[in-house]
Amino acid sequence: RVEEFGGGLVQPGGSLRLSCVASDFRFSAYSANWYRQTPGKERELVAAIDNTDGSFTYADSVTGRFAIARDNGKNMVYLQMNMLKPEDTGVYYCRARLNSWNDYWGQGTQVTVSS
């Protein structure tokens, strides 16, 4: 399984780092993904690291502000979020995926950007 933590309330322009820790499997062998969901919208992919070539993917709305990174020694993945905007508010989910039967989602962590 995977578990996220690090969400909270932050002012616009501020920063926050989300963490995701994996249990019972080697996270580095899986693709690492951060999604977010806001009320009335579908869950969207925010950032990802591919497990085959190590390539990065970012949503256009967060490019240049967010960064995803692995810490293989700790079996963790992070999402560093800078220059946060109110529209970044939502529940952020970590996902680790190897294939269709090894696909794990966390329970989500709330991020609120508000003054």
What can you see in these coordinates?
The protein is an all-beta fold. It has strands at residues 2-5, 8-10, 16-22, 31-37, 44-49, 56-58, 66-71, 76-81, 90-99, 102-105, 109-113. Strands 2, 4, 5, 6, 9, 10 and 11 form a seven-stranded mixed β-sheet that branches. Strand 7 and strand 8 form a beta hairpin.
The main pleated sheet reads as: 7 strands, mixed
Roughly how many Å is the radius of gyration?
13 Å
Q: Uncertain segments of ≥5 residues (pLDDT<50)?
A: none
What is the count of DSSP helices, taking H or I runs of 4+ residues? 0
Instruction: State the end-to-end distance.
Output: 34 Å
* SSE string: EEEEEEEEEEE
C-alpha geometry: globular
Q: Helix fraction?
A: under 10%
Number of strands: 11
Structure class: mainly beta
Mean pLDDT: 96
**Portion in beta strands:** over 45%
Could you give the topology of this structure?
Layout: E1 2-5, E2 8-10, E3 16-22, E4 31-37, E5 44-49, E6 56-58, E7 66-71, E8 76-81, E9 90-99, E10 102-105, E11 109-113
Parallel strand pairs: 2-11
Antiparallel strand pairs: 1-3, 3-8, 4-5, 4-9, 5-6, 7-8, 9-10, 9-11
